[in-house]
C-alpha cells in the first residue's frame, strides 16, 4: 500500500470542494425528469442534504446557491440554518436564461431596458451575497445566436463589457466576479462567452476582482483542458472550477466518471501552478444527477476529486523534471503514468479512519438510513431549477 508524505496528508486535509445546491433537486433531460423520493422541497432541505456530504467526507464545507432557484425571504435565516448543519453558503450563481425577455440576450441585448433588467438581477445577487456571506458571484450567460447574420457579434461584446463593468462596480471589497465560458448551447451558431480567451479578455478589462470560471464540461471534444488550466493559473486569472464530466456535450455527469485520466492531468497542472488549496481557486462541482441518488452521487464526486488529487500529488516531480530536462521522453511519461496508475484507495481509507471519518463514506452513508428517512419525510420534491 502506498504511504502518503506528510505534505500530501496536509494537502488532502485542506481540500475543500463546494457543492451546487441544484445537484440535490430533480433534474433530467428535455425528454424526461425522473422524480426521486425524498427530493428537497426548498433550499433549506437542499442544504441539509449537502451537509450530509460534508458529514461523511469532510470535503464539502460550502454550498453554492442559484438565484432565483434558491430564492428565500430571509437569507440570514438560510445562512444560520447552513451553519447549524456545519456548512457555509458559497458562490451565488445568477440566472439570465429563463425569462422571455432574454430570448435575444441579457447583458448583451440590443434593448437597454432588457440590459437594465439583467444588470439589476446581478445587483440583487450582490445584495444577497452580503446576507449569505458569499465571496463569489458566478455569471454564466446563455447568450448568442443561431444563424450567421442574426447578431452583431462586435456590438454584443461591447455591450457585455459595459454591463459587466456596472456589475463589477457594485462588488464589495470582499467579493469577486467569476465569468464562466461555454462553447455552445443554448445558442448553436455563436456564443458571446464561448471560450477562456473571451472570458479572460472580459475579466482582465474589469480588474483584479474578476476571474475566469472553468467548467470542465464546456469545451469542444479533444480540447486540452489542462493546458487552459496551466495558462489561467500562470496569468493569475483562474477563479474557479466547475467540475463534472462529459462524454458528448455538457453532460454534467459525475466528475472523474468519463475520463479519470483527464481529471488527473488537470489536477497535476493545478498542483504545478500553485492552485491546490489556494483560496483564489475555488473547487466547485456543477453536476446534475438524473438517474442516480443525489447525495451519494455528490459523495462519489468529491471522493473522485480527492482520489485523483492524491494520485497527482504522488508524481515524483524532481525525477520528472530531470527527465524533461534531459529529453528522456519515455522516462518522463513513465513517471507521470506511474502516479496515475497508483491505487490510492486503501491509503485514503486508512487516512480517513485516522481522522475519525468513515473509511468508506459511500457505505457509511448508505448504512445511515438518511435516504429512507427523507423519502418518508418529504413529499413533493421539486426540480433542480429548469421548469420549476
Ligand atoms: C450552464 C451551467 C452553469 C450553471 C448551471 C446551472 O451550462 O453549467 O454553470 O449556472 O448550468
Ligand atoms: Mn457550470
Ligand atoms: Mn454547464
Automatic annotation (TrEMBL):
Molecular function GO terms recorded: L-rhamnose isomerase activity; manganese ion binding
Group of enzyme by EC: isomerase
UniProtKB keywords: Cytoplasm, Isomerase, Manganese, Metal-binding, Rhamnose metabolism
Keyword Nucleotidyltransferase carried by entry: no
GO BP annotations listed: L-lyxose metabolic process; rhamnose catabolic process
Domain of life where this protein originates: Bacteria
InterPro entries linked to this entry: L-rhamnose_isomerase, Rhamnose_iso-rel, Rhamnose_isomerase, Xyl_isomerase-like_sf
Record-listed E.C. numbers: 5.3.1.14
UniProt signal peptide: none
Annotated protein name in UniProt: L-rhamnose isomerase
Amino acid at each position: 500500500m502506498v504511504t502518503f508524505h506528510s505534505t500530501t496528508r496536509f494537502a488532502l486535509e485542506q481540500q475543500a470542494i463546494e457543492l451546487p445546491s441544484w445537484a440535490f433537486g430533480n433534474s433530467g433531460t428535455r425528454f424526461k425528469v425522473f422524480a426521486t423520493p425524498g427530493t428537497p422541497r426548498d433550499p433549506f432541505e437542499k442544504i441539509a442534504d449537502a451537509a450530509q456530504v460534508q458529514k461523511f467526507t469532510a470535503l464539502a464545507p460550502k454550498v453554492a446557491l442559484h438565484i432565483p432557484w434558491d430564492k428565500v425571504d430571509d437569507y440570514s435565516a438560510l445562512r444560520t440554518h447552513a451553519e447549524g448543519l456545519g456548512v457555509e453558503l458559497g458562490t451565488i450563481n445568477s440566472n439570465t436564461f429563463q425569462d422571455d425577455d432574454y430570448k435575444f440576450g441579457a447583458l448583451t441585448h440590443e434593448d437597454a431596458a432588457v440590459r437594465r433588467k439583467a444588470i439589476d438581477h446581478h445587483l440583487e445577487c450582490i445584495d444577497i451575497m452580503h446576507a449569505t456571506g458569499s465571496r463569489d458571484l458566478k455569471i454564466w450567460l446563455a447568450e448568442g445566436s443561431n444563424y450567421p447574420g442574426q447578431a452583431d457579434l462586435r456590438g454584443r461584446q461591447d455591450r457585455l463589457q459595459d454591463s459587466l463593468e456596472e456589475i463589477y462596480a457594485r462588488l464589495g471589497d470582499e467579493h469577486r466576479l467569476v465569468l464562466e465560458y461555454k462553447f455552445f448551447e443554448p445558442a448553436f451558431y455563436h456564443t458571446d462567452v464561448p471560450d477562456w480567451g473571451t472570458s479572460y479578455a472580459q475579466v482582465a478589462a474589469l480588474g483584479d476582482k474578476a476571474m475566469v470560471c472553468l467548467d470542465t464540461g464546456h469545451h469542444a471534444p479533444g480540447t486540452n483542458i489542462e493546458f487552459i488550466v496551466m495558462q489561467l493559473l500562470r496569468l493569475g486569472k483562474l477563479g474557479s472550477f466547475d467540475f463534472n464530466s462529459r462524454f458528448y456535450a455538457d453532460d454534467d455527469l459525475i466528475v472523474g466518471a468519463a475520463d479519470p485520466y483527464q481529471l488527473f492531468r488537470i489536477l497535476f497542472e493545478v498542483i504545478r501552478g500553485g492552485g491546490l488549496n489556494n483560496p483564489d481557486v475555488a473547487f466547485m462541482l456543477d453536476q446534475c444527477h438524473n438517474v442516480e441518488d443525489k447525495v451519494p452521487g455528490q459523495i462519489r464526486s468529491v471522493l473522485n476529486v480527492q482520489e485523483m488529487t492524491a494520485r497527482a500529488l504522488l508524481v515524483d516531480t524532481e525525477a520528472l523534471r530531470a527527465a524533461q530536462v534531459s529529453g528522456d521522453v519515455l522516462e518522463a511519461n513513465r513517471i507521470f503514468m506511474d502516479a496515475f496508475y497508483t491505487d490510492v484507495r486503501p491509503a485514503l481509507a486508512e487516512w480517513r479512519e485516522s481522522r475519525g471519518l468513515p473509511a468508506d463514506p459511500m457505505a457509511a452513508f448508505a448504512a445511515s438510513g438518511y435516504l429512507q428517512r427523507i423519502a418518508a419525510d418529504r413529499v413533493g420534491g421539486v426540480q433542480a431549477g429548469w421548469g420549476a
